[in-house]
Structure formats: C-alpha cells, structure tokens
Specification:
1262 residues, mainly alpha, Rossmann fold, 5-stranded mixed beta sheet, 59 helices, 16 strands, globular
Length: 1262
C-alpha cells in the first residue's frame, strides 16, 4: 500500500529544516516494524540525532521480506539529506572505515547508508565499496528504496505521512491517528486510563493476543469505537520497547479494499471494522494478527475479550487525570453509568449525536423504575402500572429490543433489569414525560417506599436470618433504589430539562411525594426500612426528611432510638443496623451550608440517644467528620462552621464536649471520605479554600470552646492536657495559662487526679528530649511548676509511677543502662520511704501503686536482715486489704539476698506460729524449683507440700533426668496435670511415656471439673505432647491413637486442621474396622434414619462430636506414602470397609467419607494427572457411586473459603474448571474417574456463572 512516493520524500528532504532528525526517527520505526528479533538498538532521535558517533547501531534478525533493508546480524548506519547523497556517503564511508569505533568489527558488520534523495548510482557505489572495503557488506538505500520499505510497513507510513503533511490513503489509520480523533470527541480530551479502568485482566489478555501468532481475536464492548479505543489505549500504555514495536505494526482498517492491499504485508496487527471485517479470515490466513471489535448486539464467542464496565471509583481515577476534581470525577462516572460511550455524550467537544432510542416512549417506565427484579411479582406489578400496560410480558417484550443495541440504555443481569446510565436516559427521554406518568410514579413511590421491613419484627440477633424465615420486603431493593434514584434525578435536574410536574417545580413535586410517605414523622420503622435509600432521598428532598427526624427526636428522642439495632456484644463483622443509612444521609446533606445547622442539631440528638454498638458508624463520628479542622466534610465557610459549633456549645454542652476535644489536632489522624451529593452542587463551587491561616484560626477557635466547656471539671482538663503537645505553640501557651488559672479555683479533692495526669505528661516529655513531638522546655517547666503547686503531700507519691507493670518514663540519658537506671530509681525511692516512714510507709505505698510485688521485691533486696523482711511480710498480711503479692515479692528477693538464712528465718516464724503454713505457697511463688526448696517445704507436712506443688508454676524449670521425673510425679500426685501439659510440653521428650500418658488421662478428668483449664494455647501444648508420643517406640500405635481420639476436639478445633502423620490418622488408614466404627458413632443406620430419634446420651453426644471431627479432618489415604500409592493396600482397605459398613447398615455414608479421603491423594507420578492411577483403577473396580459422590463433595469442599475482588466474577472458578477438564481429557481409560472430574468442572462453571452475575449486579449498583 503506497502511502508516500519517492518524489514526495525528495521534496520533503529539501524543504524541512529538521529533515535529518525526523529521518532518524523514521528509520528506527521502520526497523522496529521489520525485525523479528532485536538484541541491540541504538538510533538517537531528536537533539540526540545531531551528536557525534554512528547515526545508528543495530544487531537484529529481520523478517524474510525485509532482508533487503535490514541486515541480518550486526550493522552500522549513516544517513544524510544533502542534495548530493554520493558526496555525503563517500565522506561518511571514508571516515568510518578509518575509525569504526570501539566494539565494531568491520568484517562482521554491514555498513548501511540512507538518503531520502533519489540516487541513481547507489547500487554501484555499494557494490564497489563492498568489494574493496573492510566491511562484511555495504548497502545504500535511497528514496526509491524507502518508498518500497514504507509500503511494506503501512502503520509507520501512515503515521509518518500524517505527521509530515502528506495526504494519506483513505480507510486505514494508525492507532495514534485513531486515538487523536477519538479522544478529541471529549472535552477535555479522553485519557487512556479511562479506557483501561477496571480492565486490567482484559488488558493483559489483549497484550497476550497481540504477542501471539496469526489469529482472529474478537473484543466486545459497548460500541465498536470503544473497543478500537481500548486497543489503542492498551498499545499506547505498554512499555517503551514493545509499544514502539506495536505502533509500527498496527493499523485500523475500514474497507475490504484497504484490507486486500495490506494482505501481502508482513506480520501486521490489523483492527478491522466496516467492510474490512469480512476480510478478517483472509488477513489471518496471510499471517496477520486480526482484532475484530464486536458490540453488545453480537452473540458472544467463547474466545472474545469482554470489556466490562469499571466501577464508578475506578473510572473516576481515570477522569481525574483529565483534570476533573475527585468529587466531579465520581459524579461524572455515576452520570454516564461507567460507560465511555455514554461519557462521550455527557462531555462532548462539540454537539453530541442523540441516540437512536431518544424518542422511544417504551423507555419511560424503565426510567421511572430505575431497576427491578423480574423474579419479584410485586416489582413486575409496579412496572406494569408505570407502563400503563395489560401485562408484564407486554412491557418486557418491548424492552428486550433495546438490549441488542450497540448503545443499549438498559441492562439485564440475571433476573435484574437496570437502567445503564439513569442521567443519560433522563436527558434523552425527559421531553416525553407527561404529568399522568408522574402521577403514576407518585403512587408507585408511596406503595414501594412506605413498605415496612418485616425483618424489624424479629429480635436483632435473628435478623441476619430474616430471609430464611420469609421476613423480606415484597419489593426488591433494586426497585426501591431505582425509585429513589429517579426521585433524585427529577429533583436535581428536572427543572433544567423542562420537566412539567403536578407541583410548581420538580423539586417540590419530589418533596411532596417524600413528605406523604405514611408514618415518616412518627414511626421509626419507616426510617429504618428506608435505610439504604435515605442518602438519595435526603439529597432529593431534604426538607421533609429533616422535619420528620426533628419531630421523631422531640421529647428526648425515644421514638427514634430503636433505629440503633447493633449492640456492643455483637460482632461488628455480622452486625448491621439501619442507623448507618440515616447517618450517611445526614453526612450527605450536611455538606450543603444551607442545611448544616439542622443537620448538626439532628446528629447531636442522635448522639444523645445512641446506646453504642459494635459498628464504627456512630452519630458522633458523623459530627466529627463535618467539623474536622483539616478536612471538614461540609462546604460551609469557617465562619458558619464556628457559628454552628458555638450554638451547639450553648444549647447542648454535654454533646459539644463529646465532640470538641476530638476536633483538636491529633498526630496520625486519618479520615475517610464522607457521603457526597451525587448531583447537587451543595455549595461545592463556592467552598472556601483551606489554607494554613484558616486551619490555625479554626484550631484556636475550637480550643477556646474546649476551655470554656472544661470549666472547673478535672476530668475534662485531664483530657485536654493529653492533647497539649499537639497544639500550635501559641495555643499551647494559652491552654497552659487557662489550666493554671482553673486549678487555682478547684477544690482540694479534685487536684490529686489532675496532678497524676500532669506528672505523667511532664515525665513523658522529659523522657524523650529529642523527639519531634516534645514541647518546648519553657512550656514543660510551666506545667512542672503547676504540678508542684498541686502535688499531694503523701510520702513517695512522686515515685509511684516507677512501680507499674510497664516500663516507666525516665529520661533516656544512657540507652544501654535503662534497666539499671530504673532499678536504681526504684531502690532510691524505697530507701527514702523507709527512712521517712519505716515499714508502715512501705506497706501504705505498696497499697497505692499498680504493682505491689515490685515494691516488695525492691524492699526485700535492701532489707537489712531477714527479720526486717519478715516484719514487712507480717505487717502486710495482717491488713484486711493487703497489697496483692507484696509478700511474694519480699520473699523472692530475700531468698536471693539471704539464701539459707532466709529459709531459717521463715522456719523460725512458722515454728512460733507467727507465719501460718498456708502462707508458704505465696512466699515460695518465685523461688527456684530445686531439691533444696521442695525438700525444705516437705518438712512442714502434707498440707504445706500440697500447697507448694499446687501453686508452684513450673515455668523456668531447668531440671532433667530424675529431678524432672520427680517434679512431674509431684504435679500428678497433687492433681496439677495441666502444669505437665502446658508448662512442661517443651520438655516432653525428656519425660517418660508412662508419665505423659498419666498426665493426659488426669488432665482429661480435670477438664470436667475445671473447664477454665481450656484456656488459650492449650491445643498447641497438647499437640507438642502428642508429637512426642507418636514417635515413641515403647507405645503401640493403637494406644496412642486411642488417647489422641479422646483429645481430638482440642487437637483439631477446626476440621481443616489436619495432621496426616498423627497416630490417629495412621491407625485410621490401617484399620477399616476402626474407620467404620467412627462412622457408626456419628451416623444412624440407613434403615433407621426416618424413624423417631431418641435423645442421645452425653456419652453418645461426645462420641459423635469426636467422630465428626475425625472424619472431616481424616486426610491420610490408605496405602499412600510420599508421592505414590500402593494400589493393593488401598483396594484391600476400601473393600474391607465396604463389607463392614454394609454389615452395620452405613454403606452410603461410609463410602462418601471414603471418597472424601481419596481427594487427598497425590497425582500419578507417571502422567502427573490427578488422581493417582491406583484410585482410577479402584473406581472402575468398586463401581461405587457414593464413593464417587464423596470425591465430588471432597473436591468442592477442598477449595475452602475463596477470596476475590468485588468485580472479579467467576474467573478463578473458570480457570480451575479448565484445568480439571484438561486433566479429564487424559483419562479416557478410566471413564468413571473422568465423569467425576467433568462433574466437578461443570459445577465450577455453574458457580462461575453465578459469580459473574453477582459481580455484574454489583456493578449495576455503582
């Protein structure tokens, strides 16, 4: 196909100043369009083309028909545009022959000279220099050669011709030319990201198709142009190298004639439309990659790439690249129904063409309804009424015609009909709306939106199962949402589109419909039932809804309080509550300055009646988002926001206090976007710009309100003090000054708590002097001075912070000595108290602090004598409210400090009766477990010994051998087997089998009377013990399995927590009789299933629970070892199990569980196809349908819980089904096995279709 002639090139070279630079780029593009493989490509263009060195350097392998132009292997290139190409060629050749440059081996390299001039002597010059020169080959390409080369690379030629002012042939375009025209239809011009939004998978599929061989790839979208634009966007967005390669080879062809002219070109990518579509097969047969765009009216070929509509959010991200703000981009995405074809009508660069359906009356009922579910009879009745038709079938038959249009205004996904882009449809049919239709709409709104949700009749905990109990709305949420959307569009856009309504304006008409809803003002159930629709209705008709809420909140809000239906006890994952829709509605209307005051008052009323719950959506959070200082979710000015807050402070100071402190700065604060109006401006165009001066002014005003609300309340001041360091410096000074003034007016009873808070804050700032958040030194000093004024006069109160369970705040002067510093500070504190107040002071101090045991430990370490330490213990134990574990701390430290002398002192006190024997477990709590200690305790008799071993935790035990055996025996003797299981599980390998088994039996008995033993982590410790027993050679497999069976619910708290190597699984895989017995423990005989069932005994219940856990987690295939299965072992086990199961009348269920365990088999090592050959042979031999059913069930269950993106659809199911079908094709020798796999593939394909439908319906809700 001739795009450019030699004569045109000659003229161009003489006229263009930048001809040499452009020629460089042209040669590079021609090479990319001609080479099959490129390993070195260096062709500078632009300003770089004027640099010294070779004009081009290439190592490539060309396609066959391009070998005339592109040498095979290494080549170097020079070019010129001068009138005398011979002179230029001679000069360059001589220069390069003398100095070819680093890395160039002339004998292995071809020299190429290119000129856009006609040079009759080119061939002679090349031949002579090849003969006499150092080069492997010499070539000269002139204008005639370039003309021919360009004809073989039409995509490059088309692009070059248009860029340089030549008139190209008709009916073929490069992708850049097409994109320029297509994107120019939009204002501002469309960006590639909009076409690619939500289509990453399709982009990947097309890239793979473009890289494949000669085939036809169909691609389906809303319109043919959108598909071609998507192809262009994909190519324009790939990486630099592949992008230029594809751009050089890709053309959009419109006529059959153009297609025929291109058929003999080499390896092009051709996107065809118009009459060229008929030549797609011919082009593919000639070796081209052909893209065929198809529209919605085409039956989908299975291999077609389907372009889904993106989500509104995904599309809005692309629109933001076009210059739209985030909110505007999201609104545009909603308006066009996420369709690029419709977007072209919404933001045209010129007058947009009206769609063919724009005057069709049949679309009116669809617009009014918005969406509906044809599986709901109530929905169909509404559609019939809106259409004024005799039957639903009459309406639907007329609407189905629109589905086949390339620019269809409707969609049908599953049973759901929906308007694709309600705003677009409204704009094009609004002139057809008559008042009688709007009157009918009013009746529909009243019937549908006044319906009370029957689920509200159920207790909150049962509402998630409402659909199972038949407690569902008659009309679908699709219709309810659709009607609400229609009301919003009529209210927001009806006037500008000239809609005449029974009221004086569309907005008043919609307000009247909402206001007329029965029960709106006095029945919370109406609000609760409308939860999903409230945001749209609030934007459509704010006044009647706000008035209704104000009336419901009168008298304390008791009428509206039941709208909060989550509870603090319920899981937030499963909870739902209609109040969330109400909050989103208020957030949406609160963005409008006109409604900010009313919205704030209503939210404050809701805060007052909010009982709290598991959901994070609370009225206070909505209020907070509206007035957030750095990102207010309202378009109101600062002046208005502050005025509304001041009104709240005056009218409801209790609610204001819950809000105001939270508006002050907080490090690391995040905020999610609030609900925004879909169609109304809501003051956004006049929104005040948030600058730092505005922000600081806002913070200062908020702080003033906070100080006012704090008054003389010490708790409120504590809350404000915790925020002081995050305030701007000036506001920090102001808060400190106000605090100092307030404390001077407080009562003495208020000050201790404030002092404690203040002391903690100042210590924290002193502890991290180099941190960025630390206050200035003078401010810390001011706070320390206030603290000194109000400090209580109790001994040691300044040191209480040192005795907590967490590491105290101290100045980090030496990070390597932190622990030593803390110990030193604690020791000094205790010494001061002892010096000033003696032991009574220490006891009093221990009672006040968080960790009395630490006080006791420090005192025990500094006590002058054992007797002094004992005195502290006696004094502490004599108190009615003694400090917890103080005595333990003293005794532990004294044992370390005094050793045997401490034991002697305690013994004397016990002998005198001053210390009761019953106190020994507490005194020895932290002593080491060594023979010295346990022998010493034993001398005080059985009571003391029992108390010691029952209280003494074995953590930190270092004994081994006989000492370890003795410790275990004592724990078992004194009924503490949990210590053996829990604390000694790491040492299980050093404990005898008999002791471990004794501990397990004893622990099982203890669980019955002490269920608290089943605390977190016990399953892990049990698993450690059983792992040791499983490899003990002195125990039979049967004995270990029997024990494991008793503990199964703890070992496998989830059915999928399998352990094929456990003794129990190994025994089960060896004993078909045991397997059938477990089945019998769980399931009744087949012949008795329909008989009345007697209540099971506790023992039967326990066996059934254990049995089902084992069966569901059993995964060891009989006869399987590593990567192979012994067929004879498997066959023998299955057949024996079948015989025993038949005897016990459990054949059906037993065979199903046999099938389930077979799903855990390995693939066959020979053909690498699942299942193993032994199972395939077995299925053909057993001919047991229930085993095959079990395999099917097991395979489907083996997927477990799947995760996917909201719009992924059934992709993963289809991929798995394809993989399974591929395996099934290899199993013709085993028809029963093949049938099982095909059944699974078919089930996955059905599931994929369901997932596709759900994903598409989810997109419809966008």
């Amino acid at each position: 196909m001739r795009w450019i002639s030699a004569k045109q090139l000659e003229t161009w070279a003489g006229e263009r100043i930048d001809a040499r630079t452009v020629l460089s780029r042209l040669i590079g593009q021609l090479i990319r369009g001609s080479a099959a493989e490129i390993s070195v490509f260096r062709f500078p263009s632009g300003d770089s083309a004027q640099l010294q060195g070779w004009d081009g350097r290439l190592i490539a392998s060309p396609h066959k028909q391009f070998k005339t132009y592109v040498p095979d292997g290494s080549s170097v290139w020079e070019w010129g545009v001068e009138k005398s190409p011979a002179t230029k060629a001679k000069k360059d050749y001589g220069k390069r022959a003398a100095d070819p440059g680093e890395g160039i081996v002339p004998s292995e390299t071809t020299f190429v000279f290119v000129t856009p001039r006609t040079w009759k002597g080119a061939a002679t010059w090349a031949a002579g220099n090849k003969k006499n020169g150092p080069w492997k080959d010499v070539r000269a390409l002139d204008a005639v050669d370039l003309e021919e080369w360009l004809s073989l690379c039409p995509a490059v030629a088309a692009s070059f011709a248009r860029e340089n002012g030549f008139a190209p042939s008709d009916h073929a375009q490069s992708i850049d030319e097409f994109w320029d025209i297509y994107s120019g239809r939009f204002s501002p011009p469309l960006k590639e990201k909009v076409l690619l939004a939500g289509r990453s998978q399709q982009k990947q599929e097309l890239e793979q198709a473009l890289a494949a061989g000669s085939e036809i790839q169909r691609c389906k979208g809303d319109s043919l142009d959108e598909v071609l634009a998507f192809v262009s966007a994909v190519i324009r967005s790939v990486e630099d190298g592949p992008r230029e390669f594809l751009r050089a080879r890709t053309l959009i062809v419109e006529t059959e004639e153009a297609a025929r002219q291109l058929r003999n070109s080499d390896g092009l990518v051709l996107a065809v439309r118009g009459s060229a579509t008929g030549a797609a097969g011919m082009l593919a047969n000639e070796g081209h990659r052909v893209i065929v765009p198809i529209g919605r009216d085409t039956i989908k070929p299975s291999s077609a790439i389907i372009l889904p509509r993106p989500s509104a959010y995904e599309m809005s991200e692309g629109l933001q690249e076009m210059g739209f703000s985030e909110d505007e981009a999201l609104r545009r995405a909603y308006e066009c129904g996420r369709s690029v074809s419709i977007l072209a009508r919404r933001i045209p660069s010129a007058t947009a063409e009206r769609p063919a359906w724009s005057n069709d009356q049949r679309l009116i009922p669809a617009f009014l309804a918005g969406a509906w579910d044809q599986s709901k009879d109530a929905d169909k009745s509404i559609i019939v009424a809106l259409a004024g038709a005799n039957s639903y079938e009459d309406v639907e038959s007329g609407l189905r015609e629109f589905l086949s249009l390339a620019d269809a205004p409707l969609e049908l996904v599953g049973s759901v009909w929906a308007v694709r882009a309600p705003v677009d449809l409204f704009v094009h049919v609004s002139h057809l709306l008559q008042q009688d239709r709007l009157t009918t709409l009013g009746h529909a709104v009243s019937e549908v939106l006044s319906e009370l949700d029957p689920a509200l009749e159920l207790p909150p905990r049962e509402r998630m199962y409402a659909s199972l109990n038949g407690k569902v709305l008659k009309h679908s949420e699709w219709l309810r949402d659709g009607l609400a959307t229609t009301l919003l569009i009529l209210s927001a856009m009806g006037k500008e589109n000239g809609v005449q309504t029974p009221a004086s304006s569309p907005e008043l008409f919609v307000s009247g419909l909402v206001e007329a809803l029965p029960g709106l003002r006095d029945d919370y159930r109406v609000i609760a039932s409308l939860s999903r629709q409230l945001p749209m209705l609030m934007e459509a008709a704010p006044d009647p809804l706000l008035s209704a809420l104000e009336q419901l909140l009168e008298g304390g809000g008791a009428k509206l309080k039941p709208v909060f239906q989550d509870s603090r006890e319920s899981s937030s994952f499963w909870s739902s509550s209609p109040h969330t829709g109400l909050l989103w509605a208020l957030e949406r209307i609160g963005q409008d300055p006109k409604y900010l005051q009313r919205t704030t008052d209503i939210l404050a009323g809701l805060v007052a009646i909010d009982p709290g719950g598991s959901l994070s959506n609370r009225p206070l959070a909505s209020l907070h988002s509206l007035f957030l200082t750095w990102k207010p979710a309202t378009n109101a000015s600062l002046e208005m926001r502050l005025a509304v807050l001041e009104n709240l402070v005056s009218a409801r100071p209790d609610i204001a206090w819950q809000l105001i402190p939270g508006l002050l700065p907080r490090h690391g604060q995040i905020q999610f976007n609030s609900e925004s109006p879909r169609f109304r401006d809501a003051g956004a165009s006049e929104r005040e710009k948030l600058t730092y001066p505005v922000l600081f002014k806002t913070i200062s005003a908020i702080l003033t309100m906070a100080i006012q609300l704090a008054g003389l309340d010490e708790k409120r001041w504590s809350a404000l003090l915790r925020k002081v360091h995050e305030l701007p410096t000036a506001d920090r000074d102001r808060l400190i000054a106000a605090f100092g003034h307030a404390v001077d007016q407080m009562s003495a009873e208020q000050l201790p708590a404030l002092w404690k808070e203040l002391a903690q804050i100042t210590r924290h700032h002193r502890a991290y002097p180099s941190a960025k958040w630390v206050m200035e030194d003078n401010q810390i000093v001011e706070l320390e001075q206030i603290a000194a004024r109000i400090a209580p006069e109790k001994p040691g109160i300044q040191d209480e912070h040192l005795f907590t369970e967490r590491f105290p705040d101290i100045p980090r002067l030496d990070s390597t000595r932190l622990l030593e510093q803390v110990e030193e500070l604690r020791r000094n504190a205790i010494e001061r108290i002892v010096a000033s107040s003696g032991i009574p002071g220490i006891i009093d101090f221990a009672i006040r602090v968080e960790a009395p045991s630490i006080v006791g430990g420090v005192f025990g370490s500094i006590a002058k004598s054992p007797s002094e330490a004992v005195s502290a213990i006696l004094m502490s134990e004599a108190l009615p409210e003694r400090p917890i574990r103080f005595s333990s701390g003293v005794s532990s430290a004294a044992f370390i400090r005094f050793g045997d002398s401490w034991l002697s002192e305690i013994q004397r006190e016990i002998d005198t009766g001053r210390i009761p024997v019953e106190l020994l477990p507490s005194l020895s709590e932290w002593w080491p477990i060594v023979p010295l200690v346990w022998n010493w305790v034993a001398q005080f008799g059985a009571v003391a010994e029992k108390g010691f071993w029952q209280a003494k935790s074995p953590w930190g035990l270092k004994s081994t051998g006989e000492e370890l055996s003795y410790v275990v025996s004592q724990y078992l003797r004194f009924e503490r087997p949990e210590f053996v299981i829990e604390a000694l599980s790491d040492s299980a390998s050093d404990i005898s089998s008999s002791q471990l088994i004794e501990a397990l039996i004893a622990f099982e008995q203890q669980i019955g009377v002490r269920p608290e033993l089943l605390r977190g982590g016990i399953s892990f410790h049990l698993q450690q013990v059983f792992q040791v027993l499983q490899v003990r050679e002195d125990l039979s497999l049967e004995k270990v399995a029997a024990l494991e069976y008793r503990y199964l619910p703890l070992l496998r708290q989830m059915w999928m927590n399998v352990n094929p190597e456990s003794a129990l699984d190994r025994y089960l895989a060896q004993s078909p009789a045991f397997f059938v017995q477990v089945v019998a423990d769980v399931f009744r005989p087949t012949s008795k299933r329909k008989e009345p069932k007697a209540a099971p005994t506790p023992e039967e219940q326990s066996r059934a629970q254990i049995g089902i856990t084992l069966l569901e987690s059993f995964s060891r295939v009989p006869g399987q070892s590593e990567n192979d299965i012994d067929g004879s072992t498997l066959n023998r086990w299955v057949q024996e199990a079948q015989v025993i199961a038949k005897e016990q009348d459990r054949s059906e269920i037993a065979e199903q569980y046999i099938g389930k365990v077979l799903t855990h088999a390995v693939a066959d090592p020979e053909d690498h196809v699942w299942p193993h050959r032994a199972i395939r042979e077995g299925l053909e031999k057993w001919k047991a349908g229930q085993i095959e059913m079990g395999i099917y069930i097991g395979l489907m269950n083996s997927r477990g819980v799947t995760t996917r993106g909201p719009f992924d659809g059934g992709k993963q199911e289809r991929e798995l089904a394809n993989q399974i079908r591929e395996n099934a094709r290899k199993l013709d020798r085993w028809p029963r096995t093949k049938a099982v796999l095909i059944a699974q593939a078919e089930s996955l394909e059905r599931e994929a279709q369901r997932e596709d439908t759900e994903a598409e319906q989810l997109r419809l809700r966008e």
